[in-house]
Amino acid sequence: MRKLVLLGGGYGNMRILLRLLPNNLPQDMEIILIDRTPFHSMKTEFYALAAGTESDNDVRVPFPEHERLKIVNGEILEIDLEENCVLMENGERVAYDDLVIGLGCEDKYHNVPGADEFTYSIQTIGKSRQTYQALLGLPSGAVVGVVGAGLSGIELASELRESRKDLQIKLFDRSPRILRDFPERLSNFVKKWFDSNDVEVVPSSNITKVEPKLLYNHEETIPVDAVVWTAGIQAVKPVRDLGLEMDNSGRLVINQYHQLPNYEHVYVVGDCAALPMAPSAQLAEEQAEQIVKVLKAVWRGEELPETMPEIKLKGFLGSLGKKQGFAYLADRTVTGRIARLMKSGVLWMYKWHNG
Q1: Exposed e or buried b for every residue in 187-199, given b needs 16+ CB within 10 A?
Q2: 323-333, pLDDT tens digit by residue?
Q3: What whole-number distance in Å separates Cα of residue 250 and Cα of residue 116?
Q4: Could you give all domains of the chain from N- to C-terminal order, each with its CATH number?
């Protein structure tokens, strides 16, 4: 049996499974999915798990079941592109004929001293659980710093405000205004929500050092009881260790077929792939759709098209607690209750389609 090995059970590889199973997989092909957990975790909802407004069970769905799908749980130590195999931490070697690297990302600390050691994370379900335990255990009146006011930081700060009204929350934004690259109306709506709900936004910040219970913003020191880092991502270590060409964000350079240029049987999906758009679940799923088409053409011995269709994203949805939200769709801004309902509907549909 030929082996299609999927590294990581994130949004991209889940979409590949959905498209290939149960009836689109060649009879001489099996799929091996390698992930550290026995279920698919919805990373876009980790902020709610960390804040305590959603349970662990709410942010995961089971992997599909099929007689030619094998799930391998464990940590990946190395990807050997020359030997066509993946080395696991327990010493197991998993051979492949085709490989899809979808291992996602981890926090990037930008060489800030103490950031790795003294901050919490929401990059994995395990780290989100640890963050929840830390935030849940804080006494009333404690100060929580959220470093990074991108979508993750905004959603975490707002959800934490609803979960723990007794905490002081400071959101550190490197830009002069929140969501600087989007319409000012969107920024103003989010900022107004934070002002109304007593979340302090610190604009034009630059965190230069983190110590236990202390943040350095420029030359100022700010006492904190816990810090959550949402200020940047990078490809995971096994991907960085490949030593291949990467973009300025540390993502693997790929060709038009989402393959590594010198390894036509190796595809990259999601946060590890160098694309002109920012990493997102939506982008990973759109990539996966194209990867499936390429795989099926290769398996049938067909010639690949000269170019692939341009990936077009619909926009993004964000929440401000359970009742308010914001969206940027087709160059239009939507705010308030309608945007929050839209996000809830998308989440419900995703769970329904994925079992």
Answers
A1: bebbbebbeebeb
A2: 999 999 988 99
A3: 18
A4: 2-36+74-105+234-299 (3.50.50.60), 109-231 (3.50.50.60)
The alpha carbons of the chain give a radius of gyration, in whole angstroms, of 21
Look up residue 138 and give its two tokens: 């804080």
Could you tell me if residue 52 is left (phi over 0), alpha (psi between -120 and 50 degrees) or otherwise beta? left
Structure token digits, residue 217: 């913003």
How far apart CA 240 and CA 113 sit, in angstroms, is: 21
Query: Cis ω on the peptide bond leading into residue 38 (within 30° of 0)?
Result: no
Picking from 123, 120, 152, 118, the residue whose alpha carbon sits closest to that of residue 133 is 120
Nearest to 200 by CA among 248, 145, 153, 255: 145
* Residues 113 and 209 sit within 8 Å (Cβ to Cβ): yes
Phi and psi torsions of 255, nearest 5°: -90, -175
Decide the pairing of beta strands 76-80 and 233-235.
Answer: unpaired
3 state SS of 174: coil
Cβ(98)–Cβ(299) below 8 Å? no
The upper half-sphere exposure of residue 135, i.e. CA atoms within 13 Å in the direction of its Cβ, equals: 35
Q: Calculate the average pLDDT of the chain.
A: 95
Other CB atoms closer than 10 Å to residue 284's CB: what's the count? 26
Distance CA 185, CA 336 (A): 12
The answer for residues whose C-beta is within 8 angstroms of residue 262's C-beta and 6 or more apart is none
User: What pTM did the predictor assign?
Assistant: 0.94
Specify whether the CB–CB gap between 148 and 172 falls below 8 A.
yes
Alpha helices by DSSP H, listed for the chain, are 11-20, 46-51, 115-118, 125-136, 151-163, 184-196, 237-240, 281-299, 337-353
Interatomic CA distance for residues 140 and 7, integer angstroms = 42
pLDDT digit string, tens, across residues 107-160: 999 999 999 999 999 999 999 999 999 999 999 999 999 999 999 999 999 999
Q: Tell which residue, 90, 75, 85, has the closest CA to residue 37.
A: 75
Encoded tokens for 353 = 């389609």
